[in-house]
Design goal:
Helix content: 25-40%
Radius of gyration: 19 Å
CATH superfamily of the largest domain: Nucleotide-binding domain of ferredoxin-NADP reductase (FNR) module
CATH class of the largest domain: Alpha Beta
CATH architecture of the largest domain: 3-Layer(aba) Sandwich
Number of helices: 4
Structural class: alpha/beta
Strand content: 25-35%
Order of helices and strands: EHEHEHEHEEEEEE
Strand order of the largest sheet: 3-2-1-4-5
């Protein structure tokens, strides 16, 4: 069964502009555009010069599996237009999360003191961005994150160390070892994933009911 109240489970607050920062780096996935645009609007009202030092890295809604042909390019153009209309000239859209993360890593490698990071999107996306940010020694005061979109989880198998993506059920078959894993609320920031533990170790083959709980 799920264990609730575990302190390692992340809690995210609504994004707010940090006008103490000299540079602003924004990353988003899908519906994460809305919180980022809200922060940009706040900046425009309080410190318009901050917009000149803001960069956006974004994956549009069409990132998901089963996207219609051409929807990714159309979504990217639409997203870029929204951010540019809001006053951001430095906007980069990507066909998927891996491409964004590659560019994000390169940008952080060249970032200067006073950079503030904003992350918006599903928790699995936030976790991957935060994992890289921590590798570059950004501290908590320099990072803002807002969760929105699907609650699907990345699940790390403690038995074979494989990571299963986009998990929406309480029990999942590991992509690495095929064990049936219980998806716990224990979250690792280092791994950017929730822990998965073999659910039928004591009674092989006896599984709880599989339910969709992370929608």
């Amino acid at each position: 069964m799920l264990v609730t109240g575990i302190k390692s489970k992340p809690v995210y607050a609504p994004l707010q502009a940090d006008l103490r920062g000299r540079y602003h780096l924004m990353t988003g996935l899908g519906v994460g555009a809305a919180p980022l645009l809200r922060v940009i609007a706040d900046m425009g009202g309080a410190a318009a010069q901050s917009l000149q030092n803001t960069r956006v890295l974004y994956v549009p809604d069409a990132d998901g599996p089963g996207a219609a042909p051409g929807s990714r390019s159309a979504g990217a153009a639409s997203a870029a237009g929204q951010f540019q209309s809001a006053g951001i000239a430095d906007v980069h859209t990507f066909p998927g999360t891996p491409a964004l993360l590659e560019r994000f890593r390169a940008v952080l490698a060249q970032s200067l003191m006073g950079t503030r990071l904003y992350v918006a999107g599903p928790e699995s996306f936030i976790g991957l961005v935060m994992k890289i940010a921590l590798q570059f020694n950004l501290n908590k005061d320099e990072i803002r994150a807002e969760e929105c979109g699907t609650l699907a989880r990345r699940v790390y198998c403690i038995h074979c160390r494989a990571t299963t993506e986009d998990v929406r059920t309480n029990i999942v078959s590991c992509v690495g070892c095929a064990r049936w894993l219980l998806v716990r609320d224990h979250y690792s920031r280092r791994l950017a994933a929730y822990m998965g533990v073999m659910v039928d170790a004591e009674a092989p083959g006896e599984l709880p009911a599989v339910k969709e709980v992370f929608l």
